[in-house]
Amino acid sequence: MTFTDLRSDTVTKPGPAMRAAMAAAEVGDDVYAEDPTVRALEEYVADLFGQPFALFTPTGVMANQLAVRLTVPAGGELVLDADAHIVAHEDGAASAQGGVQTRTTLSPRGLLDPADLARLIRVGNPYTVGTDLVAVEQTHNRGGGSVYPLERLTAIRELVSGYGLPLHCDGARIWNAHVATGTPLRGYGALFDSLSVCLSKGLGAPAGSVLMMPAEYEAEARRMRHRMGGGMRQAGILAAGGRYALEHHVERLAEDHEHARELAVLLRDAGFAVADPETNIVLVELGERQPDAAAIAERCRADGVLVSAFGPRLVRLVTHMDVDAAGCARAATAIARAAKG
Amino acid sequence: MTFTDLRSDTVTKPGPAMRAAMAAAEVGDDVYAEDPTVRALEEYVADLFGQPFALFTPTGVMANQLAVRLTVPAGGELVLDADAHIVAHEDGAASAQGGVQTRTTLSPRGLLDPADLARLIRVGNPYTVGTDLVAVEQTHNRGGGSVYPLERLTAIRELVSGYGLPLHCDGARIWNAHVATGTPLRGYGALFDSLSVCLSKGLGAPAGSVLMMPAEYEAEARRMRHRMGGGMRQAGILAAGGRYALEHHVERLAEDHEHARELAVLLRDAGFAVADPETNIVLVELGERQPDAAAIAERCRADGVLVSAFGPRLVRLVTHMDVDAAGCARAATAIARAAKG
Amino acid sequence: MTFTDLRSDTVTKPGPAMRAAMAAAEVGDDVYAEDPTVRALEEYVADLFGQPFALFTPTGVMANQLAVRLTVPAGGELVLDADAHIVAHEDGAASAQGGVQTRTTLSPRGLLDPADLARLIRVGNPYTVGTDLVAVEQTHNRGGGSVYPLERLTAIRELVSGYGLPLHCDGARIWNAHVATGTPLRGYGALFDSLSVCLSKGLGAPAGSVLMMPAEYEAEARRMRHRMGGGMRQAGILAAGGRYALEHHVERLAEDHEHARELAVLLRDAGFAVADPETNIVLVELGERQPDAAAIAERCRADGVLVSAFGPRLVRLVTHMDVDAAGCARAATAIARAAKG
Amino acid sequence: MTFTDLRSDTVTKPGPAMRAAMAAAEVGDDVYAEDPTVRALEEYVADLFGQPFALFTPTGVMANQLAVRLTVPAGGELVLDADAHIVAHEDGAASAQGGVQTRTTLSPRGLLDPADLARLIRVGNPYTVGTDLVAVEQTHNRGGGSVYPLERLTAIRELVSGYGLPLHCDGARIWNAHVATGTPLRGYGALFDSLSVCLSKGLGAPAGSVLMMPAEYEAEARRMRHRMGGGMRQAGILAAGGRYALEHHVERLAEDHEHARELAVLLRDAGFAVADPETNIVLVELGERQPDAAAIAERCRADGVLVSAFGPRLVRLVTHMDVDAAGCARAATAIARAAKG
Ligand SMILES: [Ca+2]
Ligand SMILES: [Ca+2]
Ligand SMILES: [Ca+2]
Ligand SMILES: [Ca+2]
Ligand SMILES: [Ca+2]
Ligand SMILES: [Ca+2]
């Protein structure tokens, strides 16, 4: 059976042109910072966002965790929303490996409200833990691919700067926000002290993320990347795939967004509670009379459609370059059938 | 100058009878679990709350941290309110030393709402961090000595049990809740899987807390206490002070509550925004036109009155056995004078 | 049954005069650094060793761990001997709570050889972990109360200084080295960047150690002590016991050393392999034909004598102020009987 | 200038056939364990060593660290030699991220002596840290590519089994030991509970290692790999390179060993102290009258030859598939010239 896979945009696979680019990549030993294709990718991405320094990492988890751990000492505090990828899907790494305390609040669609943030941030003193870093996620995965409006981000930036604190963006899917809103990448880049972006989700590269940070962190970032097990040698093979993705697959994310909207319409027509997708993620909230998410996912799989059980009664579908409109229609049909049992 | 010290109820000092009890204590080596006075105190406290096992610790931080670390693995998650002592005043210990991820939400007066809690708790799977422990604080320090009504605690207990999770209570000042509400200690004890109580705050012992947990944790709790540096030898000296405090200083907390109410009236009369104190803590919110908390604290000190700057515009006063009604009046006067500049 | 307890000198109990001193102690809140008896003890001990700053801690584990963690970052390295208390009896705390890597070598009687130390210390670079701290133990517990000769310590100091590294001394029983060799405490104090000393072993106080370090660590040391759960409030009660011990129980350690020598003679006469004790610890190596250490300890206990099984075939006896010559004779007899089975 | 690069065998680059294999690789999402090329590589490697389970990782550091952290709890102990890669070149990761205590001893050529090991291993009890894991390194990097004889490994295995403990092998260069000694890979595989092997050193793949462990660790290993940031998506691209390397580049390591021997002869002829290389690593110990290692490395670089300063007076040269006999001769000449200054 051929599967229509909407579990995540991570499942995207490299096509022939990207593969050719990887096969032709000039490489070196990136632990010695001598892989020319990696270095070129890092400079290319830094330039896209107007950031001073970039470092290639095997995964987005590593990119986020490097930003957090380089900025927050053990026993220090990271403030973010309670549904952020960093606290939901990174295995507690910031705390487990870096000793970082996370402090969060529940926020609609995962988007922090500046007023809540003002209540969360704390100035440290000898008897009180102070906040060391604030993080936002753009677009927000668990929020359903939700997008922070630029004004909200700007307000957060000002608030955070008022405390003299750095602001991190988990921008794994910032490309989707850029395409959905038209905000230039440099417009986002100017707001953050550190920023991680992913090459292997909607962009379709096989692996790799890029972390941007102030340049003074370079030595420590390379060291920490090595400690975490991310010091790959001839990483230019992967970097070449990422570069190809950046040059060819950003603008086409608009198609994924279009597919997501179509999928939402089909699902709503079939009687499901589905919010308007802002980008490429569709969340389906299951009612009390419907099967739970795990059952839906299992039945859809039997029908050739893969979706994620994202909560007991929450199904997530993610559109991407390897699924077309017909695939979305197939998925909507399968879910409707699954819900009927 | 003699100071009226309302910074905290931790400043309470042992009187002659408590000192005599300590001097007469039979002792042994508590690392070998052979100090009879410590053992007796542990059994006494466990019995007060109807809990199966108790362990003496040098401090409340250690008691809370033991409960968290024995229950939550590194990379696991503790859910609690965003102003809890555990995330505000324990130096990030759960994360820094135990690798525990904390996930929180802002709550009025620090008291978790069961509906919010239901949104916070997460069932883990291979791709998602699951919650391992939920904690409440009774009374709530940063919430202004606020008290969870028994029904709210019962609802939280049911919710948490529905997920098969344990519930911890930071009960440093649970004595105040008991006295203020009349809820029996065993009524509280029945609700929690683990519970820490403090002997050196309102109760007036020089040092020490007691942690209660399921008895199967005993060996690991002793080990972890030793690792944290809490394996004191002839600790019976301190335990004797705690025992005296428990036998003589619980009911008198009602006086502290009365003093707090009087202090609040005086401060309100003087034009300050002060909520009705539920127990022995009075929080004064300073207006934009008033000096900030640090300035108030500094001026009061010059006037012989010690208070805590608990936030940029928040002053905390805590009543206790070493301050009488006259002391409270003196404090109210000093604060009023300080606010005028 | 009355026990003769030679398991450790930690079992020493406070007598009437020490208890009276504790009962009379003036106290304050030591988390605010306001306990006068604690402050006086800290200054007294710092002065004894000619060190700039001292901090009272509940236990020796906490004192050592503070020194290590304040000096070595997570991922940094502590070099010491393979049988040091820090790696044998502190529950892996430096690594578990501070992320510190320990690197060791086996050394006769636990005393590091400068030539081995030179091979162990490593200068860090981007690809190699460098050493951050070296530690010695004086006297050495698992080495059998062995004493570093001053010349050896001086050679180690010079070697370590040549690398620009700090040197820590776990001086839990440095009093015994001082009394055994006549080396002034300031002679030891001058050699170390940080130094922990214990009040509750041979000196007989109920609890407490003192850490000495450069004064610039004070704020961080208080913070870390609080994080570890060592921020006791009216700790002056314990500090008064420690002060009494320092003023009355140092020189008498010579008696314990004499008792250890007598015990060794008795045990050798009874056919055991026993090295000459240098201070107050006697190690008995059991032969293949003798019962193992656990069996010896169990049989002695039935005979009213408590000893430690310190390894599968190693028994440790520690003399102290609560055991006299008759007690030592009783112990020798019990061990001989136990070995016969 | 074209460089002759003997800094490490990590600098090896993929050739056309390996690149073609990578470009043609069938891929899937390896976080979902669905990448067929990764799965096939894992099975292939597990079969080579007769091990039950294998997991692909981006780097050897991650493979080693997974083995350590899955086997040793925080506060537990790993015993190994003092020059092991795990404590020299992995940035303290076991301690920093896993809270693991390392205990080591100095060993000639990095090869543990069973008698020393017997003294290092400790059985835990409530007051003593016990050993949880023993590790060896085959071949040993800092030992100069030294090879454990099979009998020594077998003796260590028996000793370790006697304590009921697992034995890990850092087998980054176990291929070299296999080729140098003729010991079958399964002969090694049978000795270890866990084993990491590297594809990107002498074998010439661009990146990747493989960890073998008991199959019951699979779920936790995947989780921990994700937490460390090693959950790459379409990792089959890299796995295809590793598979090609395994099928084509193992036996040719004999050439590297031959080159190392030739290099050693040339260097000895030029007056340097050089031990007989056992595999592909040549260590040059510089005398007091010669320039130090950093100076040698710098001068060689100016001469087009890259070598590693491996200690203040220690130079390391590593032969590999991208350097031929002429390159080795060039290197020997450059070093001789550099030493003359
Ligand atoms: Ca992909
Ligand atoms: Ca840590
Ligand atoms: Ca940890
Ligand atoms: Ca008190
Ligand atoms: Ca004692
Ligand atoms: Ca390579």
UniProtKB/TrEMBL annotation, chains A, B, C, D:
UniProt keyword Lyase, yes or no: yes
The record's annotation in InterPro entries points to: ArAA_b-elim_lyase/Thr_aldolase, Low_specificity_L-TA-like, PyrdxlP-dep_Trfase, PyrdxlP-dep_Trfase_major, PyrdxlP-dep_Trfase_small
Q: Which cofactor does it need?
A: pyridoxal 5'-phosphate
Please report the name of this protein according to its UniProt entry: Low specificity L-threonine aldolase
Instruction: Give GO cellular component annotations, separated by semicolons.
Output: cytosol
User: Which BP terms in the Gene Ontology apply to this protein?
Assistant: glycine biosynthetic process; L-threonine catabolic process
Q: Which molecular-function annotations from GO does this UniProt entry contain?
A: L-allo-threonine aldolase activity
| Pfam families documented for this protein | Beta_elim_lyase
Show the coiled coil region(s): none
Provide the alphabetized UniProt keywords: Lyase, Pyridoxal phosphate
Q: Which family does it belong to?
A: Belongs to the threonine aldolase family.
* Lyase recorded as keyword: yes
N6-(pyridoxal phosphate)lysine: which positions carry it? 201
Q: Which Gene3D superfamilies match?
A: Aspartate Aminotransferase, domain 1, Type I PLP-dependent aspartate aminotransferase-like (Major domain)
All residue ranges annotated as the Aromatic amino acid beta-eliminating lyase/threonine aldolase domain in the record: 5-286
